[in-house]
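Bug #77: duplicate submission created two jobs. Keeping one. Sequence:
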Amino acid sequence: MAIRHKTLLIMLITFLLTGEAFAAEKSDALVNVRLMAINFEHGREGVKQDYHQAFTLYCQSALSGDIESAYNLGFMYFNGRGIVRDLPLAMRWFKQAAAGGDIQAQNILARFGDVTPVEEDAQCKPAPQPVMEPVIETNPARQRIAGWVNQIAPAYGVDPELVMAVIQVESGFKSEALSSKNAQGLMQLIPDTAKRFGVKDSWNPVQNIKGGVAYLHWLLRHFDGKVDLALAAYNAGEAVVERYKGIPPFQETESYVKQIQGRYPKSLHPIPPPKAIESL
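Kept job's structure:
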């Protein structure tokens, strides 16, 4: 994953975690972020091991109050796992986890009582809040849609950049878009798909995004995080992709996948956790 993609993803996740979601929903979102971090730390669920990405995700989740993420940050510092070994910094995060009730962190602090925790971690800072409505904006519609996507996509464990690429190709950010096949709105939901994912009004842009993201969440899980197959299924249906055992040989679908992957070049996406927050 490119550094630019990493930075944007963390900014979007942080916006979700510090937004207006209810406490229970925020807790579930933190779990989703932590699970993504674990996948990157250990190279699970079809993603390449990436300690930097794991550290960044743990950092944002820990800063938002996730106890296990704080412990995992301490573990990375304690063992020099992808970063320079630093016991005072490790104790700083173990101290935070211990204050939240983590027994293992409490035991470690007792055992290494001669190591004084530092107060601040210069490598772990809150991600800057994205500016949602700048004074000068060349595409107000896209900016407004990005704000919705930034809140909705991470709750489903889906990369917001992927969602934005899909919207760009599907509708060009036009919420009133209607295809000859009666696909409607920003993410071009056909009525059956809208009904399947609980969308009551496909012309409501927020409902439309939720339905499209919910479908992408399902497809990424179904196709083990393989982006090309998930996109092909979004265009042609999962049954067609299964029948052809890959991208079906349809010019429309092949072109559709290439267009989106030109904007979102990652071939694998972390497999989203099964539980998503549906009441944002």
